[in-house]
From TrEMBL:
UniProt cross-references to Pfam families, sorted A to Z: Oxidored_FMN
UniProt KW keywords: Flavoprotein, Oxidoreductase
Species of the source: Pontibacillus chungwhensis BH030062
InterPro entries per record: Aldolase_TIM, NADH_flavin_oxidoreductase, OxRdtase_FMN_N
Tagged with keyword Flavoprotein: yes
Protein name: NADH-dependent flavin oxidoreductase
GO molecular function list: FMN binding; oxidoreductase activity
Amino acid sequence: MSDRKYIFDSYQLPSGVTLKNRVLLAPMTNFLSNDDGSVSDKELEYYKRRSGGVGAVITACANVNEYGKGFDGEIGAHRDDLIPSLHKLADAIHAKGSKAILQIFHGGRMCPPHLIPNEDVVSASAVAALRPNSPTPREMTEEEIQQTIADFGAATRRAIEAGFDGVEIHGANTYLLQQFFSPHSNRRDDQWGGSVEDRMNFPLAVVESVKSAVTEHAKDQFVVGYRLSPEEREEPGITMDDTLQLVDVLAKQNLDYLHISLSSFNQGSMRDENDTRPRIDLIQERVGSIVPVMGVGSLHTADDVEGALAKVPMISLGREMLMEPDWVEKVAKGEEDQIRTAMKLNQQEELAIPEPMWTKILNVPNWFPKEEE
Ligand SMILES: Cc1cc2nc3c(=O)[nH]c(=O)nc-3n(C[C@H](O)[C@H](O)[C@H](O)COP(=O)(O)O)c2cc1C
């Protein structure tokens, strides 16, 4: 049996929902949903294989309206007829004993045009991302902004009706909420842009819409988390100073957690290589006593996770749980030396990573260490 100090402690979130331990499945897009946004059978198998050990599963991002679809094979949370399919997903996760959290999302200017009606890609302003072949989006109208805020609330209602325990608002990784907060993608001079306070208005309106949906529709305690990326490389771009102001305000919104999206848990600044102070420490010091902070990023071993949990109350595991779906169970049984630390190329079926996800993840250079076995 494991004598790990933190991992297996239960944890009660501010809403009252209790996680049986401190490790969550990080949200990971799997390209496995059907074209209409419904969850496929192979996707259910993928989630079942990764549920049970973790305290909660945070799903892949699910688009809240048809202009927000960022990936082929993405889960849809944008129509009521998708509620039965979302219900199957929540049930599959619950059947294994983990809480189920739906990540809700709009891709904004990062959406591939072929996935969007009339290829009409929208964002805060008509500024293309600094990546090759990025489309120049159309600036959202006031009406579209209000509709999108309402769509986050409607997606939350669907998650409640589908039996999820919570939603995570995707405010990270360059997508629409971050685009409104970023001085690179947001050049507006109305109430939705300009000063750092005004750039917060859209993300805060989304939080309010989500919280209102919970008040109106949830009969039980319901988790609302918020994911953010602390910095951007772009000039202008989100600075740590901007983010500390944002987390000050988010900490007052009665959220269950802030999930800090970093590729490495203890990462320093991506804007200033001389500033090596871990971003997670700066955020934990600033608001950790007010709102629980969740970390993520290249936490491979039980020692890595214990070290992280000495700083923050929860962590999520992404690629580790693709390579090792039994990560938590193996630590619990004291079988840490059995944890797979590379993608075993002859174990696609055993790992429950169906096509097209398998081919996609293997084609990204340096994403996973790979072994023939
Ligand atoms: C295949 C894949 C898909 C991902 N999709 C999402 C996503 O849908 N939403 C999100 O917030 N992050 C997504 N991420 C980022 C992960 O949640 C996580 O932050 C990142 O992989 C770093 O954690 P790790 O080192 O434990 O993998 C994805 C990562 C991977 C590898």
